[in-house]
Design goal:
Blueprint (H helix, E strand, L loop, with lengths): L1 H10 L3 E5 L2 E4 L24 E7 L19 E3 L5 E3 H8 L1 H4 L1 H6 L5 E6 L8 E2 L3 H4 L9 E4 L13 E4 L7 H9 L13 E4 L5 E4 L5 E2 L5 E6 L5 E2 L3 E2 L2 E2 L2 H5 L8 H10 L3 H4 L4 H5 E2 L2 E2 L7 E7 L6 E7 L3 E5 L5 E7 L1 E4 L2 E4 L13 E4 L1 H6 L1 E5 L6 E7 L10
Antiparallel strand pairs: 1-4, 1-25, 2-3, 3-6, 4-5, 6-13, 7-14, 8-11, 8-13, 9-10, 9-12, 11-17, 15-16, 18-19, 19-20, 20-27, 21-26, 22-25, 22-27, 23-24, 23-26
């Protein structure tokens, strides 16, 4: 396997072509905007649920505990021999050659991934705990970013708005009362929160510990490499959530009477009561200075120490050199042409198991040298979403 990884790495000039990676969920309803064939949303069987997410450049498994898909969530590389190897194995073998010195020394791995999550209904009101809590159940904190790509949001779903945090007049006691009623009645906990309408072509940053109930737009979500939630909302659009969704962050040996207090202590109360939440966490796109008249680059996720993302657009019938400071995963959401040595094209419709040409992983040195990209369309742009780790943190001065 090692020689196959090395051969693919060298023949691809430091770029891997990735295999589509789908994740099923047993809750909510599919938004049907993942470019999947309509017959394939229940490809893994009704017991596994519907496909509602596609993960990119992931070395992280889901917490679905799907025994029939032990590798669910893990991304695979397509080799030039038409075989497949785990990106996680390539990271272990190539180390800093793939992810760069900074990530290798600090984390010893590729610590982030991205996803499209695609739900017809809004998601439950939930948060992701900080490291000191997450580590007790074998996970880590999960800061995350959202971006709403226009190419995948022709349909906005049932509620294109997101609840964030709590209203200033709400007290901790109000929240705790709702949690203690979790198994008794519909608590309507989002009545304590405030919702913001989502704007296609913009995004948000959500730190660990902040309560949020994502709206129904298809969302591009670069995030830290974990899959741990603490769900505060017990009924969403008539769908009832079991208590284990609330207590998933609690160690198994914790006494029942201690759990609500433990969950309350895991909340970042200062951030949740922030009266200027939108000012601090809303992320409109920021255009980078031009390096080529035929290419537009926009930061769409930024302003944190963990993850960044960029939307890159190449004009029709043009070739450019895209240079970046760090390794990244990427997905093409519009157009066709070439990406490095590979033919590349956005997906119009795929079947589960198809080997698409829209997703790539680029090593740090190749990113720095620059990837030659050609848009072969004579009429429409090629649009690429790129996600980076903490070695490419970006802060924008207002």
């Amino acid at each position: 396997m090692e020689s196959m990884i090395r051969r693919t790495f060298e023949k691809g000039e430091g770029v891997f072509r990735m295999v589509p990676n789908f994740v099923s969920r047993t809750f909510n309803l599919p938004g049907r905007r993942l470019k999947l064939h309509p017959d394939d949303y229940y490809y893994y069987g009704t017991k596994a649920g519907a496909i509602m997410e596609r993960w990119f450049s992931s070395i992280n498994k889901t917490r679905n505990n799907n025994l029939e898909r032990a590798d669910e969530g893990l991304s695979y590389i397509l080799t030039f021999e038409s075989g497949q190897v785990l990106l996680a194995d390539a990271v272990k073998e190539l180390k800093e050659e793939l992810i760069g010195d900074t990530l290798q020394k600090r984390y010893g791995t590729w610590p982030v991934f991205a996803k499209f999550f695609d739900y017809a209904n809004p998601l439950y009101f939930h948060m992701h705990p900080a490291d000191e809590v997450a580590e007790k159940v074998g996970c880590s904190a999960k800061p995350e970013c959202y971006y709403f790509p226009p190419q995948l949001n022709d349909c906005e779903g049932k509620r294109p708005s997101t609840y964030f945090g709590f209203n200033p007049e709400v007290t901790k006691e109000d929240v705790e009362k709702k949690l203690r009623q979790f198994s008794e009645c519909d608590t309507h906990i989002t009545a304590l929160s405030r919702a913001f309408d989502l704007e296609v072509g913009t995004g948000w940053y959500i730190p660990a510990g902040v309560l949020h109930a994502p709206g129904s737009l298809l969302t591009y979500e670069p995030q830290w490499s974990t899959d741990l939630n603490c769900v505060f909302e017990n009924v969403v659009c008539g769908e009832v959530y079991d208590r284990h969704f609330l207590e998933d962050i609690c160690p198994e040996d914790m006494k029942e009477e201690e759990r609500i207090g433990y969950i309350m202590d895991a909340v970042d109360w200062e951030a949740n009561f922030d009266p200027d939440f939108k000012e601090h966490y809303f992320r409109p796109p920021v255009i980078l200075p031009k390096t080529d008249k035929n290419m537009t680059e926009k930061w769409v996720c930024y302003g944190n120490d963990f993850i960044t993302a960029k939307e890159t657009t190449i004009a029709p019938n043009c070739s450019v050199t895209l240079k970046d400071n760090a390794a990244y995963g990427c997905v093409i959401v519009q157009g066709f042409g070439t990406f490095g040595v590979y033919h590349a094209e956005a997906v119009n419709m795929m079947r589960v198991g198809d080997l698409t040409a829209d997703e790539y992983f680029v090593c740090k040195d190749s990113a720095a040298r620059g990837i030659q990209i050609t848009n072969n369309s004579t009429t429409e742009p090629m649009v690429i979403l790129q996600h980076f780790g903490p070695d490419n943190a970006v802060y924008i001065s207002k």
